Amino acid sequence: MTLRTPSPSRRALLGGAGLLAASFMVSVRSAAAQDARVRHASRIDALIARMTIEEKAGQLSLFNDPFRFRPQEVNPVDKDGDPARVADMIRKGQVGSLFNGVGAAGARTIQDIALKESRLGIPLLFAADVIHGLYTVFPVPLAEAAAWDAGLAERTARAAARESAASGIHQTYAPMVDVARDQRWGRVVEGAGEDVFLGSVLAAARVRGFQGPDLTAKNALLATPKHFAAYGAAEAGLDYNTTDMSEQRLRGVYLPPFKAGFDAGALSTMSAFNEVNGVPATGNGWLLTDILRDEWGFEGYVVSDYTSEEELIAHGFAEDGRDAARIALLAGVDMSMVSGLYNAHIPDLVAKGDVPMSVVDRSVRRVLNVKAALGLFDDPYKGSDPDAERREVNAPEHHALSREAARKSVVMLKNDGGVLPLPRSGKRIAVIGPASDDDVFGPWTIWGDRTKAVSLEAGLRAALAPGAALTFVRGSDPEAPIEGGIDAAVAAARSADVVILAVGESTPMSAEAQSRAEIVVPAPQQALAEAVKTAGKPTVVLLRTGRALALEGAIRDADAILVTWFLGSQHGPALADLLFGDHSPSGRLPVSFPHVSGQQPFHYDHKPTGRPADPAPPREEYRTQFREAPHSAAFPFGHGLGYGPVTYGATEVEASTLSWDGRIEISVEVSNVGVRPVEETVQLYVRDRVARLTRPVRELKGFRKVRLEPGQTRRVAFTLDRKTLEYMGPENRWTVEPGRFDVWLAPDAQSGVAAGFALVR
Ligand code: NOJ
Predict the structure, then answer these.
(1) Ligand 1 in contact with 755 (CB < 6 A)?
(2) Would the CB of 129 count as within 6 Å of ligand 1?
């Protein structure tokens, strides 16, 4: 798969015809949605003409759904969540959308209040945080990114959409497309990792999956690529923290996955909590209007993140709530999430001339247009249907897909001496550590159905012969020792033939607001691992985590390591599939695992600097390197092993030059020299040797997964053209100059021998 470098603004290309291009884009993605918008255009105009300013503010206001389950644990407590009060607001037209309420019957009842008891009968829009599944839980997005499989991401998003739409949800606040290059940030788990190319491919796939081919369809879910923008670049990986960066980096690294999501048809986005170069994203007209609307022609609506417009006050960017509402609205935030500031202040802001009515009308039109595109004016109940809900929720095919996705998400970092796969019988297995418990869903699984989740123990027992010797000892809690835990664990290890050491992070360690200063396995678990090591048994680590970790001691030195992330409903069976060799591990790291925490932020596509690191000891002085660690990853981006060594031939380039408008083929022979079938992910990396702005040491430009039978050799070829070599240049446009390029076809971002070609004009 290769993706063309995101194009410069459509306005730049089309000379101001951005909106035309965007309409065309939407009509290509979903003709029915476009048709619905056109059919309802005059109705929307008529509605806007009849709406009072209070009703307009209401259309632009979203609140927690107080009628159905209200999951306070994912957001700060909401003071306004009284059902009677919100029902009254709906009747008065003071609410246009509700979120995080789930259930078809309830959705119909609440919709009826809006349709039958409010003056204008405008349907409500129901949103929810469906991040990686609703009742059936799929692997966390970072895990699924490790599958490097856009088709898979599309299918899991589609399944999540089917369950959600049938349960009365119209919109998901996903995918999170923030590039995350600092593993201290707790929300790395929600995205696609550190790479802009992989992130863009998966952003588009997830949007396609949530929305499906027709946004008006009963099972379509409006996608919301978030958080616009640069939220993943928080300084020190500290959630909500400042971001400050060059325009080239913003446009070249942090914006492309959003663009890919919008080009795939997403009609909403969420403004981020953070500031960007001194201006909070939620009050940032340059981001929300100049780039998003005027350059990209985005036609959907922007919703603030939870109270982010109110937080303009704490940022020191707004005087008070009225000022915050004014700034956000003028910047381009169409809908306010939860703060109530739009309801409270829009009437007065317009009356006093601080916000023109035309700005309010424009936002109302955007929101109503999206409601029309979703088909809500034709069928306000849309997919909410208790029968469909019964059919879709926990459908067997969703659980089968969850198992497949979980299996494909696991990354085998090492397998010394071929300790894996394990035999199904004849070995006594001790499973030790807190990550063997049922905390396998990860964050944002508010409605995840724990009664349908299959544990590691159940998965292993089902795969083993009846009566197989399998013991489970917790040994430690994730962040605290258990009295006697280590002794029990060591005893179990001594009387076993093989140890499965299940350690790592818990869900509360890997989520929003969970930044970590040290990205290591917590000390009590490390102590457990060191003690278990004294038993001297072959040890397989199952590493549960929502970010890359710096592995140490007995964990790093174990015979085998499988990164299992948070795999979701079918965690146990998926791991059994891999541990006993029914399938070969095939995941590849979407984030670099560093040697030590202090390397953060570390990403494989860093710049070379004027004094590049000296990789081989004895290292030369005065280089870009730490005293204590190499300037490289312990397990690099793209790394992952299968049950069979795969060898790579030399990267072959079909010609020494690529002409300006031509194409060039790059290929490599890959061979499975093992005795089991494997799936190899061949990765295409490029380095632009000399440019007007310095370029990274390597950049991913394509990848392909190929199945290799034992003994099989295949040639894998990619085609590059000038567009695929472009970078965000000094004029803030995608550009490329003639010159030399290195190219690698390699199993990860740190290996392989470069070949090269020259781009000539
Ligand atoms: C805050 C989070 O940043 C965002 O991702 C989420 O969608 C909202 N809360 C709503 O729950």
Answers:
(1) no
(2) yes
CB of residue 74 inside a 6 A radius of ligand 1: yes
Q: Judge residue 581's burial from the number of C-beta atoms within 10 Å of its C-beta, 0-12 exposed, 13-18 middle, 19 or more buried.
A: middle
Domain spanning 644-760, CATH class? mainly beta
Task: Give the 3-state secondary structure of residue 669.
Answer: strand
Is it the case that residue 26 has pLDDT exceeding 70? no
91 near 118, Cβ under 8 Å? yes
What is the value of pTM for the model shown?
A: 0.96
Beta carbon of 75 within 6 Å of any ligand 1 atom: yes
User: Ligand 1 pocket check: which of 173, 239, 336, 339 to mutate, most ligand atoms within 8 Å of Cβ?
Assistant: 173
Task: Give the integer Cα–Cα distance in Å for 479 and 690.
Answer: 48
Confirm or reject: Cβ of 173 under 6 Å from ligand 1: yes
Ligand 1 atom closest to the Cα of residue 173 is 7
119-122 contacts, C-beta under 8 A, 24 or more apart: 119/55, 119/93, 120/47, 120/50, 120/51, 120/55, 120/93, 122/47, 122/59, 122/93, 122/96, 122/368, 122/371
User: In the predicted model, what is the mean pLDDT of the chain?
Assistant: 94
| Segments of the chain assigned to CATH 3.40.50.1700 | 409-599
Q: Please tell me if the CB atom of residue 115 comes closer than 6 angstroms to any atom of ligand 1.
A: no
Q: What is the 306 CA–ligand 1 centroid distance (Å)?
A: 6
Q: How far apart are CA 309 and CA 54, in angstroms?
A: 19
486, amino acid identity? I
Nearest CA to ligand 1 atom 10: 306
The CATH 2.60.40.10 portion of the chain extends over: 644-760
> Residue 92 burial by CB count (10 A; 0-12/13-18/19+): exposed, middle or buried?
middle
pLDDT average, residue stretch 433-440: 96
Best residue among 74, 228, 274 to mutate for probing ligand 1, ranked by most atoms within 8 Å of CB? 74
DSSP 8-state class, residue 231: G
| Residue 486 and residue 432 in contact, taking contact as beta carbons nearer than 8 Å | no
C-alpha radius of gyration, the chain, whole number: 26
Out of 3.40.50.720, 1.10.10.10, 3.40.50.1700, 3.40.50.2300, the CATH code matching 409-599 is: 3.40.50.1700
Chain segment 231-273, per-residue pLDDT in tens: 999 999 999 999 999 999 999 999 999 999 999 999 999 999 9
Ligand 1 pocket, residue 305 CB under 6 Å: yes
Active site residues: 305
The SS3 assignment for 197 reads helix
Q: Confidence band (pLDDT; 50, 70, 90) for 70?
A: low
Please give the number of the atom of ligand 1 that sits closest to the Cα of 74: 11
Nearest Cα residue to atom 1 of ligand 1: 306
Look up residue 436 and give its two tokens: 């063997």
Q: How confident is the model at residue 715 (pLDDT cuts 50, 70, 90)?
A: very high
Ligand 1, residue 176: give the atom nearest the CA: 5
The number of the ligand 1 atom at minimal distance from the alpha carbon of 100 is: 11
Tokens, residue 672: 């499975």
Q: How far apart are CA 111 and CA 122, in angstroms?
A: 9
Determine the pLDDT at residue 81. 76
pLDDT, tens digit, 9 for 90 and up, residues 439-489:
999 999 999 999 999 999 999 999 998 889 999 999 999 999 999 999 999
Task: For residue 224, give the ligand 1 atom closest to its CA.
Answer: 7
Q: Is the CB of 190 under 6 A from ligand 1?
A: no
Q: Is the pLDDT of residue 29 over 70?
A: no
Sign of the torsion formed by the C-alpha atoms of 440, 445, 451 and 454: negative
